[in-house]
Design goal:
Structural class: alpha+beta
Number of helices: 13
Helix content: 25-40%
Number of strands: 22
Largest sheet: 9 strands, mixed
Distance between the termini: 50 Å
Radius of gyration: 24 Å
């Protein structure tokens, strides 16, 4: 026997173009694979979030579901760090995301002692420190910071309390092909079903295959859906940092604040964690990222403190030095007369957690479509965004909410959950919404990467005007917080 190739065409209504692609048929065999309603590839927070949402739904809870994950999920279940130790992989969760996680009872399993809400955020232009905007929310947090593992463990805990899901973890997908033609007229016709073969040789057939498998998605590759975009000439440097104690400061501002400063080489953000810790996300050039990672811990800390206080010229000079940043910062602070004030700068960083400094390349990606026949993409498999707005994981959970609703609606009305027509509800809901957020973030990155004097003055004026327009500022906060989302 031999493998047959079938060529079809995918029409993406978003871009009004047709994209040819090929899918392979599996070799006909007398062995029947195990058939699932949904097979999800990818057991990160987004993939687990979809399963938790479906298992929490009275309509969809009885669907037969399988999860495939290359990592050992048992290690996530038993994940534990000492109280004064935090992972460098943390995320900022918007009110909409937290509301959704609460609605599906996942938040009940989150260790809230490792969650830090923040009600204030200050953003300013590194080329014009007078150009700043501050966001405050007294009724509810602007966002809440927590480690990704804390959230993933909570998702698994909630799933373990619900109707069982078939977990295939610590294994990889070997191939994805369309089911073979039936061997006889009496045989079950699975020729439109994706067949997912694991490294163990076991094969799963899916009425609906969900790709939550990240940037280099095997599921998206199987579907032949192009993912368009570009790589930024930037890396994101992350680290877990420890603040100076508050008793070194005036007692007038005893709340958690997030800070972001746009430097000429990229934005730097410091987001609060509990117990005086913070997570750093510094977007910069690959050369500067490599230099930051090569510094001794004390000099790395000095560079972070400098990046929120000194001029771009000073920062560019200091980062080129192989060592001595501590003394440089002390001298330049005396000369410039910088006054420590939490209304203007984050509290001084005293130390960096051992082995927490890391970096990753920054990219922009948007799939031409989030769906195909018997297939849907969510999270980074569908889109990848610059981290300056902190929206990546929140966009993934918005995908989850939308796809879960589409599946629930189809099940409630007796439809086929793998039908492209029924999946279009999800695609039309999220593609434009995500494309808008991707576009805004990309434009901000480019807008603040320009150091031309007149443009610096123009964007500074715009930032100051927006800061004075209270209702418009509140509207921006609601949009960033996902006010249009719902959990019902």
């Amino acid at each position: 026997m031999h493998i047959i190739l079938r060529t079809t065409r995918l029409t993406t209504t978003r871009l009004s173009r047709t994209t040819p692609f090929k899918r392979h048929y599996a070799i006909p065999t007398s062995a029947n694979p195990e058939i699932y309603d949904i097979v999800c590839v990818g057991g990160g927070p987004v993939g687990l979030g979809l399963l938790a949402a479906l298992r929490s739904s009275p309509v969809a809870e009885n669907l037969k579901i399988a999860l495939i994950e290359s990592q050992d999920l048992e290690r996530v279940r038993i994940w534990h760090l000492p109280p004064n130790t935090y992972s460098n992989r943390a995320s900022s969760l918007t009110p909409s995301t937290v509301s959704f996680l609460s609605h599906i009872k996942v938040w009940d399993h989150v260790d809230t002692s490792r969650v830090q809400p923040y009600h204030h955020m200050r953003v300013w232009d590194g080329l014009d420190d007078s150009s700043a905007i501050s966001f405050s929310s007294h009724e509810s947090p602007v966002a809440q910071m927590t480690e990704n593992q804390n959230l993933t463990r909570a998702l698994l805990s909630q799933l373990d309390s619900l109707r069982p899901v078939s977990f295939f973890d610590n294994t990889k997908v070997s191939s994805i092909e369309l089911g073979p033609s039936p061997l006889s007229p009496e045989s079950l016709d699975l020729s439109s079903y994706p067949f997912v073969t694991l490294a163990s040789g076991q094969t799963l057939a899916a009425r609906l295959l969900v790709g939550a498998d990240g940037l280099n998605s095997q599921v998206r590759s199987f579907a032949g859906i192009p993912s368009r975009g570009w790589d930024y000439d930037c890396h994101g440097v992350v680290a877990t940092l420890k603040h100076a104690p508050r008793d070194l400061y005036d007692d007038h501002f005893q709340i958690a604040i997030a800070y972001q400063r746009f430097l000429s080489s990229g934005p730097i953000a410091l987001l609060p964690l509990p117990d005086g810790f913070a997570t750093l996300v510094w977007s910069t050039t690959p050369t500067m990222a490599a230099q930051l990672k090569s510094l001794a811990s004390k000099d790395f800390v000095a560079m972070v403190n400098s990046a929120f206080r000194l001029s771009n010229v000073d920062i560019q000079y200091m980062i080129c030095q192989k060592s001595g940043q501590v003394d440089e910062l002390a001298w330049r602070t005396r000369v410039t007369g910088i006054r420590e004030d939490e209304n203007l700068y984050p509290r001084l960083i005293l130390s960096v957690e051992a082995n927490s400094v890391a970096s990753f390349p920054l990219r922009y990606r948007q799939a031409d479509s989030y769906i195909s026949s018997r297939l849907a993409l969510i999270g980074d498999a569908a889109h990848t965004i610059h981290p300056l707005a902190g929206q990546g994981l929140n966009m993934g959970f918005a995908d989850v909410q939308s796809l879960a609703k589409a599946i629930e609606y189809t099940v409630a009305h007796g439809g086929d959950i793998g039908s492209e027509i029924n999946l279009e509800r999800y695609n039309s809901d999220m593609w434009i919404q995500n494309n808008r957020m991707l576009g805004v973030t990309d434009k901000l990155h480019k807008w603040y990467g320009v150091g031309w004097g007149p443009l610096v003055g123009l964007r500074g004026l715009g930032l100051r005007i927006v800061d004075r327009l209270g209702p418009f500022k509140e509207f921006l906060m609601r949009q960033a917080g996902g006010a249009n989302g719902s959990t019902g």
